[in-house]
Predict the structure.
Amino acid sequence: QVQLVESGGGFVQAGGSLRLSCAASGRTFSNYPMGWFRQAPGKEREFVAATTWSGGIIYYADSVKGRFTISRDNPKNTVYLQMNSLKPEDTAVYYCATRDYSCSGSGCYTNFGMYKYWGQGTQVTVSS
């Protein structure tokens, strides 16, 4: 049974920082990506960031580039999302996701339909 558990969400003022964590269990995800997505009320789920477990390939959405950093701790099977300079428009439920099959091309990392396993999400609220 694959499980992804996010943590670290909360309430922060604009300009503040949060670090989200996603702990994976149930199998080893070597060579498979971990992605972060978010969904605001009334909006579609959107891509935020993704990385392979090797860290050799990393993608960011343009809206978070330069402010968010994705990283991973392989021995702990955990992926992090460091979020700095937060804006009210970053308010959303943040989800981590992974899959257990190979895929090539940027769409494999940025398209939420390419991910098989999802966490329950963690709420991030940024006040102005």
Q: What stands out?
A: The chain has one helix and eleven strands. The longest strand covers residues 18-25. The longest helix spans residues 107-110. Residues 4 and 24 are 5 Å apart (CA to CA).
